[in-house]
């Protein structure tokens, strides 16, 4: 285990260093403010420390940019009083009720009824109810939409399902099965289409080669815009 520490803006950051016998070069990855350094097995700790320090300015820049995106797109509906659904932010109101806890949506705002007898924290119940509601709407929308787009691009999965993934918006298996993250339902409809098309194209190109991206571009010419869109909203994946 290699332990290296760097200081960024007066704060200590401890990167996670991963050694791999298959790796030939060193790399730095930053996701949600966490720094991961990958190096070949046997790399001296002093070399790793120097490698990280030489890139400290780049690391600080990217952590700062991610923090801005995180603050802008953080999902805290109980505190913010709003929730994103199909690309739009809707007001959210909460009220105590003698009825069963539930979510209602009238195309203008969300209303969460919280049962008076619940012992759980109101914020926890609100988030859980919204997640359950959104996951159901995602299933109602994303599966039929995938079938429509599959017909358009003439690439047909063997199965379509939804998942609760922490680090990806969708996946395509070698068996031709496509799974989509239910959190997609919060995104713009064109953004959802991009993810679906991306996974459908993997049925033909099971990689991220130039040929793959050329195929994606045939059906989604502005795919680079939507890639950045989801990069900016990567914090959504952490909403639990």
TrEMBL record:
- Give every YgjP-like metallopeptidase domain span: 24-231
Recorded superkingdom:
Bacteria
Protein known as = YgjP-like metallopeptidase domain-containing protein
Q: Which organism is it from?
A: Neptunomonas japonica JAMM 1380
């Amino acid at each position: 285990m290699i332990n290296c520490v760097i200081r960024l803006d007066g704060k200590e950051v401890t990167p996670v260093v991963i050694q791999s016998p298959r790796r030939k070069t060193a790399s730095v990855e930053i996701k949600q403010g966490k720094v991961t350094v990958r190096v070949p097995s046997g790399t001296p700790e002093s070399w790793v420390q120097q490698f990280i320090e030489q890139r400290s300015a780049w690391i600080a820049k990217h952590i700062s940019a991610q923090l801005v995106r995180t603050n802008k797109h953080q999902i805290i509906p109980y505190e913010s009083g709003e929730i994103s659904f199909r690309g739009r932010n809707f007001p959210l109101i909460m009220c105590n009720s003698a009825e069963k806890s539930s979510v209602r949506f009238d195309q203008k705002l969300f209303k969460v009824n919280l049962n008076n007898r619940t012992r759980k924290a109101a914020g926890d119940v609100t988030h859980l109810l919204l997640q359950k509601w959104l996951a159901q709407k995602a299933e109602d929308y994303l599966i039929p939409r995938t079938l429509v787009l599959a017909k358009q691009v003439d690439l047909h999965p063997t199965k379509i399902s939804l998942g609760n993934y922490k680090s990806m918006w969708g996946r395509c298996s070698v068996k031709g099965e496509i799974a989509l993250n239910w959190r997609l339902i919060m995104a713009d409809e064109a953004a959802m289409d991009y993810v679906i098309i991306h996974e459908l194209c993997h049925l033909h190109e099971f990689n991220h080669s130039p040929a793959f991206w050329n195929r994606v571009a045939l059906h989604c010419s502005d795919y680079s815009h939507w890639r950045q869109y989801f990069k900016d909203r990567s914090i959504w994946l952490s909403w639990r």
